[in-house]
Amino acid sequence: VVMSQPDSILAAELRAARLSASPELRARVLELAARPSEPRGPRLPRLRLRRALLVLAPAAVAVVLVVAVAGGLLDSSSPRGQAQQAQPLRAADAGALHAKAAASVAQGAAGIAPTRSRAQDYEAEMRLRVRDLSATTKRALALTRSFGGYVRSVDYGSGAQSGAAELVVRIPIGSVQAAILRYSALGTILDQHVAIRDVQPGIDARFRRLQALRAQIAKLQRRLAAAGLTSDERKALEAALARTRAQLVAVRRAQQQAERRTSFASVSLSLTSRKPVPAVSHPGRVDRALHHARTILVKELIVLLYVAVVGVPILALALLLAGGERFRRRRSTERLLASR
Amino acid sequence: VQQSFASAVEEHLDDVHAYLVYLTGDRAAAEDLTADTFEKACRLWHRYDARRASAKTWLCHIARTTALDHFRAEARRRRREQVYELRERVDVDEGSFGEGLSPTIEAALATLSAGEREVIALRVLLDLDAESAARLLEISVTACTTRLHRALKKLEEGVRGHVAA
User: Fold this and answer.
1) Do B152 and A339 touch (CB under 8 A)?
2) Is the pLDDT of residue B64 over 90?
3) Which of A122, A138, B74, B79 is least enclosed, having the fewest CB within 10 Å?
4) Local confidence band at A110 (pLDDT 50, 70, 90 cut-offs)
């Protein structure tokens, strides 16, 4: 302690006159020290804040990374993950098919044959890559006619060898399978879709309705033929008969339209001469794992960010309160010591 | 090397007692508080870490906490009893701060506040270094040095005043 001369004299006097504990107090305290100590549990290492942060921060980062990598590996090996990965590649895969393979695909699609015994709405969509757009379009139109079908719409620039053409043709339902096979041979199949909708219940319902209307008409005619009808009754029966006949005509027309519609299949052909998008190779398991790990990591970071956004102000407030309380306590201690 | 509690008692009992005498200005209270301090220290001895502080500093820290609790309890008791005194001075017995201390120094010490006597006890009597004392008092080293300087100056002025009177 650096002191001036009078200070050091004072200090020396204070030190020289320092009180010692009384023998009674000494005995009392030594008695405490002599007591057998209570058995203590295992002493846990005390971590100071900085040291704890030094350990916890890398541990938290390690946990986040392990969760991401483990999640990525698990997802990449699960069938769901593979299915999800494979889905966007389907079109590209189709584009990479050779003509032979495409034919087998077409055969598979054409294999979904319409059921002859039931009325069905049959719609097929095909996307083909062709070499000569003009010639192929003409060939498709000729094929349609040869199957007894007709063209509903054509969108095609005549004479152009490259570009795209859209054809919607109607093919008799009995020939649609063969027609699809022939169309698929015109080029490389890029995409194919067949939709079949059963409309037999509607036709059956209309048939029953027709029968009921016919029975009703016959009944009305019998009543009109009976004797003893008043003029008003006759007029009412004739009006009812006319209404029922009109209904019969309308239902019959609807039935004929439905039967005509189901006797032809609708085939949409999209022809293109453009090169397809190069096929994307299937990513390996490691790539999938990395992709999933990255996704999980991003999600974890979002969660951490959210926690930080919510938690930091709370933590700051808590620290501020703790600091304020500490300051208040220190001031209180200072005042207490100053007042004594 | 971690020393035993018994050896810490032997070595630092007088220091803790002297510190509490200066802090309280009351020998009887200091004796009781010293006993309380060592009782607490005995219970907490397994927590003591020699790498973080010396046994003397650690014991003084417990002594300070014990004394402050005592002061606060006394203040509460006074409030409860509704004794409105401007300042309740502790009766300082003859020779309460030291054996054979001159009456002028005794009187001058009695005029100092507990906080001022405390820093003198820690830095002069117990010879704690500035850093340990500052940590104990929960203030900066500069504030501790300033407080000591002011306390000693006030003590010196008090001694001069008494001599002149």
Assistant:
1) no
2) yes
3) B79
4) low
pLDDT at residue B5, as a whole number:
85
Cβ separation B18–A19 shorter than 8 A:
yes
Token readout for A164 is: 């795209």
What mean pLDDT is predicted for residues B7-23?
91
CB contact set of A22 (below 8 Å; sequence gap of 6+):
B31
Amino acid found at A10: L
pLDDT band at B85 (very low <50, low <70, confident <90, very high): low
Between the alpha carbon of residue A82 and those of residues A215, A219, A280, the distances in Å are 61, 67, 15
> Could you tell me the pLDDT band of residue A2, with boundaries at 50, 70 and 90?
very low
Q: How many CB pairs lie under 8 A apart between chains A and B?
A: 121
Helices of type H across B25-129: 27-44, 55-80, 103-111, 114-120
Residue B25 CA to residue B109 CA, distance in Å, equals 9
Chain A residues within an 8 Å CB radius of B47: 46
d(CA A205, CA A8): 120
Per-residue confidence (pLDDT) for residue B66, from 0 to 100: 95
Residues A40, B125: C-beta atoms closer than 8 Å? no
Kindly determine whether residue A32 and residue B49, on different chains, have CB atoms separated by under 8 Å: no
Both tokens assigned to A39: 């058995």
pTM, two decimals, is 0.50
Tell me the C-alpha distance between B27 and B21, whole Å.
6
Enumerate the H helices of chain A as residue ranges: 5-16, 23-34, 49-77, 79-86, 90-95, 99-110, 133-146, 176-184, 200-225, 231-262, 285-338
**CB contacts, 8 Å: B23 with chain A:** 337
By the 8 A CB rule, do A186 and A106 touch?
Answer: no
pLDDT band at A92 (very low <50, low <70, confident <90, very high): very low
pLDDT digits (tens, 9 = 90+) for B120-161: 999 998 989 999 999 999 899 999 999 999 999 999 888 888
Which of A2, A4, A19 has the most B C-beta neighbours within 10 Å, making it the best mutation to test the interface with B?
A: A19
A253 to each of A11, A122, A207, A241, A250, how far by Cα in Å? 125, 21, 11, 18, 5
Secondary structure class of A278 (helix, strand, coil): coil
Closest CA to B155 of B91, B92, B111: B111
Q: Which of B45, B89, B106, B126 is nearest to A32 (CA)?
A: B45
